[in-house]
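Give me structure tokens for this 85-residue protein.
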Amino acid sequence: MPEISRFPGIIIAMYYRDHSPPHFHAVYGDFEVTVQIGTGEVQGFLPRRVLSAVQEWRRIHEAELASAWELARTNQTLPRILPLE
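Here you go.
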């Protein structure tokens, strides 16, 4: 799973040629969720403060995530996206 960002304890990644809708994966310890890029809809569980950070990051980087999704769909190299500060 190609990592596109990382911030304290959280790994953000996308799979190549993954299914729609456009989404990314967020991993925190033993927890993992998928988050839809456009809506923020979540499947899975993360602790509340971690999910809050992931959603804030998603809102800030929504355009970059959409672009990365298109690259992943065509098996191209994914860019690194700045972490949440």
